[in-house]
Design brief:
six-stranded mixed beta sheet, Beta-carbonic Anhydrase, Chain A, 8 helices, 2 domains, alpha/beta, about 45% helix
């Protein structure tokens, strides 16, 4: 806990003085982020850091593997879907980004099986992406994890289009969807194109 408090003190001493006017404006006018980012909870992949974003620019929802479920309005709890609804319908963001990454533990759990300690929630959560495995011609290939990381991003983008109000805005041109994958070791960001991942230049 001490490290967190020390970090807060640094924020107040070093960051707050230069950002105070921005925070006050965000408080007075409310938020109007330009992008919804759906990202993995992995501590090594912070969307605000990767995209060099300032406070108020990104509306971020993070979960295991950055997965987007399909549109299923029912009585269950839907944290990711609730965030998507709020960002797209209330805040009216013009962009939605799915940010995957290398060495994703969630994808590894899907491919190799979840650890015994992660059977209650991680295993069933990742089961929504099992179609990715079924579509792989060779699960023993050395690059199977990185290929699955890419395909999970592609699946999440496809699942976003099952939300009728997302599809409507994409079709009328008021909303853009994009997929990325961050390579932790090199710091390189790749964008998902039809042919696969392409480094951002």
């Amino acid at each position: 806990m001490d490290r967190l408090i020390e970090g807060y003190h640094r924020f107040r001493a070093e960051t707050w003085p230069g950002q105070r006017a921005r925070y006050e404006a965000l408080s007075n006018k409310g938020q109007s982020p330009g992008t919804l980012v759906i990202s993995c909870s992995d501590s090594r992949v912070d969307p605000q850091t990767v995209f060099g974003a300032a406070p108020g620019e990104l509306f971020v929802v993070r979960n295991i593997a950055g997965l987007v479920p399909t549109y299923e309005p029912d009585a269950r709890y839907h944290g990711t879907s609730a965030a998507i609804e709020y960002a797209v319908r209330v805040l009216k963001v013009p962009r939605v980004v799915v940010l995957g990454h290398a060495q994703c533990g969630g994808v590894q759990a899907m491919v190799e099986g979840a650890p015994a300690e992660a059977q209650d929630f991680v295993e069933p959560w990742m089961s929504m992406a099992r179609s990715v495995l079924r579509d792989l011609p060779d699960r023993s290939a050395p690059d199977v994890l990185s290929r699955c990381e890419v395909e999970v991003v592609r699946l999440s983008l496809a699942n976003l289009m099952t939300f009728p109000w997302v599809a409507e805005r994409v079709n009328d041109g008021s909303l853009v969807l994009a997929g990325f994958r961050f390579e932790i070791r090199t710091g390189i960001l790749e964008r998902l194109e039809d042919a696969g991942m392409v480094p951002v230049t």
